[in-house]
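FYI - complex with nickel (II) ion, inputs then prediction.
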Amino acid sequence: MSSRFFAGIDSIPFEGPESTSALAFRHYNPDEVVMGKRMEEHLRVAVCYWHNFVWPGTDPFGGQTFDRPWFPGDTMDLCRMKADAAFDMFQLLKAPYFCFHDYDVRPEHDSHADNLRDLQVMTEYFAGKMEETGTKLLWGTANMTSNRRFMGGASTNPDPEVFAFAAATVKACMDATHALNGENYVLWGGREGYETLLNTDLGREDAQMGRFMNLVVEHKHRIGFKGTILIEPKPQEPSKHQYDFDVATVYGFLKRHGLENEIKVNIEQGHAILAGHTFEHEIAMAQALGIFGSIDMNRNDYQSGWDTDQFPNSVPEVALAYYHILQGGGFTSGGTNFDAKLRRQSIEPEDLLIAHIGGMDVCARAVKAAAAMIEDGALSAPLDARYAGWDTPEAQDMLAGKRSFEEIEAEVLAKDIQPVAKSGRQELLENIVNGYV
Ligand code: XLS
Ligand code: NI
Ligand code: NI
């Protein structure tokens, strides 16, 4: 293929670990079979629209550093030029999926009617591009953080007109996602939180968000959308405090509003770090609660305290994430969305490709290490052994609620039970993991 934006780059081949080319995959080989499944089907890689084609490289101290021919993207012609470059990149990377917000792909207007019209036009344009290139939509979403109207929140806004505008916006984005056969629909509540409790009523805002998410689910069933609805937790930024703090908090919210069987989570590495967790903690927690859906793959700076959205480059860390994903049976409708952006000095088109190649190679190595650990029972055998005491009938009865405190105490006295301390063997387990990565 030849692309106007990525001029001179026709394909990015898989060349194997010995390759020294910057524009070749060394580990990501879509057809390689890992645990009985093609690597592409394990990872289900998606490229995100916003960081690659919309973000201009700004930071709090400086303006645009990237020079893209479609900037500022405020006309439909520029939006189409942007889409052409985006689909060229999806194809060059052989990424099976992409993800987008409404705001990424159309000009932004004051009226919902104008936003809706332009989104529908771009949805049709995307449908053509998807047909032509074979790229699929992992998820769609609405941007309800950038426009000033949402500064005090979307569904949690004190003004019901903003709630209504947000509802209309999400409806439009769900309809677009449905029309493009999206496999999930994501809600990340960047401004569903507060800056100060001095002007915030927590009880009201929880009730508003609960109603809003029920509206989302009702609409999903009304239009027959078969994808999964996902909430993306994050503890803060842009809000001082965000309601969808982490996976456990989201689960409490879903339970409170009767949504725990309808909505799952999209877990982002950087957000896990901001919440004081590891990526694998959030994934394992979601698996344990039955709400694991999808992941946003990136890497947070461990010192910065904000969401740096860097491309992943630590195989051991990513391997533990995929270990828990594969242990839980792997992705169903979810996938690996690179919600990652270049550093603002990486201004060449080629940098976009190089960043994704590196990220995909890291994921490939990580998923292979995770699969090997599972196939060898390297971690599951010691784990099963650690809990083996629970297999006895007495222990099972305790769990099943068949024995009271009195009965348990009587047994402890009768048998003079004196538990023997056993090693947790953490260093041994860490050494085992290091043998795989
Ligand atoms: C921001 C979020 C955002 C979501 C999509 O921190 O990660 O990019 O993934 O709205
Ligand atoms: Ni994200
Ligand atoms: Ni993020």
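Residues 349-375 form the longest helix (27 residues). The chain has a mean pLDDT of 97.
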